[in-house]
Design goal:
Layout (H helix, E strand, L loop, with lengths): L3 H8 L3 H11 L5 E2 L5 E2 L2 H16 L4 H10 L8 H4 L3 H12 L3 H14 L2 H21 L5 H21 L8 E7 L6 H12 L4 E8 L4 H7 L2 E7 L6 H14 L4 E5 L14 E3 L5 H8 L2
Helix pairs in contact: 6-7, 6-8, 8-9, 8-10, 9-10
Length: 290
Amino acid sequence: MYSIKQVSERLDIPAVTIRAWENRYNVVAPTRTEGGHRLYSEKDFETLKWIKTQVHEKNMKISDAVRLLQESPPASDPPTSQNDKHGELKEELYEALVNLDTQEANQIADLAFSLYDYEEVFHQILIQVLYKVGDEWENGAISVAQEHFASQFIINRCTQFLRVLPVNPALPKVLAFCPEGEQHQIGLMVFSLFLKKKGHDVIYLGPNTPLEGLSDLIKMKDIRVVAISMTNPNPIEKVENWIQSCLKMDPSLKFIVGGSCVKDCPKLESKSVSYSLGSDWDRWYDSFMR
């Protein structure tokens, strides 16, 4: 079972949108805890994922997507043996991490990277294990120490690739950060790896980064693109004011603002600012970065 926060973060859909789809269109019917909090089943999760695909990637109206869902529900998933070829590695890595076994976890991760492309390992194994760790911690099945150990292990693995991937000096240099108060950095980390694979030099500042002094860093390091990730809506106004001041300083700068909180927030009307990347990063890259 998933909380609305977990569904929102995993699917990159704002919680307010999930509630609207539920209340207005009855696309899912979550159960409730004794405290009244929503709990979504795996079937609910897959239904919301399907709806998002129709609306955000196929540009279908939500009402049409709901009607299509009612007329022809999504096909059931194939058996696990066909659908989840990474299942065994994920389970083994999870067990090693909750047992705080660094050597075993590194051996499993090394095996995964030897079998699959690193992007596949990040998206299909490491990130999925991180989600499970978060779920088990919220459910009280593992301790905060186990959660911190697992999260740091996965972040360190991502950071290793940021260091070793080659850079094309002819491409724009990128600054990547989460603003002050924002701790969720995995999405930003994976997106930074995507840009690094394209050949961009990415200066990765990570979570909880104050805005003060960043404009000087942009000038000093000749930054051309700034990537910002937020799941917490509180700093949005401050971040957008900062973006506007940066664009006054240098109108040629480009900004990418992503994260689950930005879809339903007011947006700057500027060709220099891109919001809510969605899942097709290559298409976005071709349209915005070139």
